[in-house]
């Protein structure tokens, strides 16, 4: 929500807005005031379920954010998900030796997840080292730890892998999925579309996001869904309000199936 038009700047005002619209949680990222955000959400009985974090493989070593240890301590025992977008210096294409190194490093992180009672997952992201769902799944399977998996963001799935045949691509992901991010989007040749068409308020666009959600639930996904809002050029409060209404309609429609 922080990149939308007229989004409140402070943590207090952001939480106040999402609370007033009926949301029960708000995600974060490594660069925001996570302690202040968590405190305000805790005060209101709301959750901070996910933190978006960049990790970098440089010279064979995994470089974590400077506040990594602080984040581990802050979220100890909360089951908060650390969603890790993966970067490898000097490599754009996938390489077996790099994957092997990442698996070793991620195995260490999985042990930290167990120690601190949190969750971790690879976040496949367009134009980053790990950008496909299959790549993320294979890395997560190789780590082989119940607290380490992957996330699925609809906009990156559409941009990287396209809309056609998405069902077959998501089928094998569910055992590793920790979170799914959804939004409105247009259907068609999504790989050639810009983010303005791939990330819209929930309920907008020609892509059937309700069917996407229903398919995952029908296939056994029981985890959380989050709302992706990045770069939506609409009034923040109005876009969130429309998205909340769409989500409630999804819930009603699914219950009536």
From TrEMBL:
Domain annotation Xylose isomerase-like TIM barrel: ranges: 69-242
UniProt key word RNA-binding: no
Keyword Chaperone applies: no
Gene3D superfamilies referenced in this protein's UniProt entry, alphabetically: Divalent-metal-dependent TIM barrel enzymes (3.20.20.150)
InterPro entries, per the entry: IolE/XylAMocC-like, Xyl_isomerase-like_sf, Xyl_isomerase-like_TIM-brl
Domain of life of the source: Bacteria
Protein name from the UniProt record: Xylose isomerase domain protein TIM barrel
